[in-house]
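Forwarding the complex inputs:
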Amino acid sequence: MSLDIPSVSAEDLVLDGRIRLEDLVDREGLDELCKSFLALFGIPVRIYSSDGALLADAAGEQELCAYVNTTPGGRNACATTVGGVKVREPGEAGDVLHPCFTGAAYRILALEYDGRRIGRLIVGPFLPANVAEAPASLLGIDPGIAKDRAQKLLERMPRAKAETVTRIAGHLKASLDLILFSGHKALVTSKMHLASVTESYRQLEDKTSRLQEAFDRLKELDRLKSNFLATVSHELRTPLTSIIGYSEMLSEGLAGEMKPEQADFVKTIHQNGQHLLALIMGLLDLSKLESGTMRLKMRPMSIVPVLEDVVATLTPTARKKGVRLELDVAPDVGQMRGDPERLRQVFLNLTENAIKFTPAAGSITLRARTMREQYVSGDDEDGLALLAPTRARLQVRVVDTGIGIPSRERDKVFDPFYQVDSSSTREYGGTGLGLSIVKRLVEAHGGSIDIEDNEPTGTAFVVSLPQGEPGTAEPSASS
Amino acid sequence: MQINFGGREVALKLVYYGPALSGKTTNLRSLHQLTSEASRGRLMTLETKDDRTLFFDMLPLMLRAEADRGSSPGMTLRIKIFTVPGQVLHATTRRLVLQGADGVAFIADSQISETEHNAASFLDLRQNLKDLGLNPRELPLVIQFNKRDLDRVRSDEEISALAGKGREPVFKASAVSGHGVLETFFGLLHLTWAKLDGEHQLAKMMGLDSTALLPMAARQMGLTGDVTTLLAACVGGRLNRKPEDPK
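Prediction (whole assembly, two chains):
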């Protein structure tokens, strides 16, 4: 997408192209200015642009002119004079007097701005101070002109001395110059604004396209990384299977009896092989989850047997450590859609973790509840107020009395390979992959996972899973 | 530079660059006051409420080269002097104003406390010129150490020593009182004219002698002094650098 912005170059500001009178002033305003001069001094004023267009006209016909125009000869002569005035250039000096056959005169002055002529100012007709009587050129123009009447009307013409006209014209030019300057300034300002905005826009567009490129490159790298992980993990598994298989056979005595020391060594090989396999499987899961290639086998299920199985599996481990492991399921926990195998992995992992970090005589509880009228994620969903009450979420809390997780670390524990304290790796073992896989699995189910404190000590991992949407909800007749 | 053959006009663009509050606008105001009304237009200042230049100032000068010799009908030299906004904020405006500049006067603040601002602004100028595709080494550039009237400024000796080592002609000024303003302007006009005349044979076109422009300009601007005296105020650098000098 690109906006069509006229290109404005600051070079325009050097010459400003050609400044045109009609571009810089408001016509009506100019007209008013001229009218106020007419009202003040009684002398008609007209302003022409440099290409001859009449921009402002404060004239009002003089009585003498009206009278002259009633005769054919006068009409002709008047038309010639007015036509001449219209096209007369004010010459080198920029100021010229154009006489009329009536004895009156016009002053034609050049309007300049920034050293250039941009128009003409015409002052008149007025009667020069030295004209006292109707001249022969007026009386002889047509036989229909009566001397008395012509003389009477001539005296009603505005009369002005040359220097008065100069003063009036000078004043008008000064006023006009100020108006032009203001207009020019506004023009320059807006040009600059436009140039400035265009430039900023160009810079932003530049930056955006660079960011987009970087983003595309990162996405590609991320995809390559996931592929790489998947391939490598897969390839690593094959030889590892042999190591585990043969060490197992050795320890079972299939290749003959071993001395106790040899048996010990082989057992260590077998254990570490298993550990390595778990690590590789974890990496594989993670890369599948990240690349989006892990398929969940979603089906109607109940979480209760899953949790029961987890507790049954881990009870021996817990007992060995002297930790109490309990399951507490509320009666309203019903059917949901999910992948039981993956959810088992989630809770197995969380519970294993809890056991690992809980000292002897501590306790761990898996507590399942149905939460109604509470929708945690997606605050700005359409029609939330209507939809939320129809939804229920299953909440499973895995609560321990272990060492706890400082609040500032809580966001990071879900990062791959992260452990709160690297010394804990040595003390408690583990790959650091478990929680990141758990989080992704929960999210793949449309759920969320949070960490809360367990008073007075320990941690509560809170897994929240959707328990049926309107229309998709399984009939919760059982339980 | 723009040449309008039909209208027999040459238009130059000079830019006064420098850090915020170094006195660029004051230079223009003084120049405006020191020159005759016939040769200059109104000083256009687009300023903000807090008395600093938001966008820029512009002072137009018009010099008419009369046809005093030969058959050339004479020519008009229009010079538009711009200032840039010094505030770091207005980087875009600065670059826009700098576009198409024929010469630059760098107005530095002599106060020792401003040393770093001067340097930063100069680096900014250099970067902007490069961004605009101009070679900073080829652009006519003079440096003015302004605010000589203040306390705690770099001493004359230090400035002379610094100027002696550099390429750019250096002028000292106190723009508030008008001191050094014309000197800086003529120094810049001299350099700019020498370069453009060398490239475009402007003098010939205007029916002038290459050396006649500056005295003509001074005359038209209503100055009575001698141009050579103005140029002699330069305390260092290469004012008479030949345009074809590759260095």
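The CA atoms of residues 13 and 80 of chain B lie 5 Å apart.
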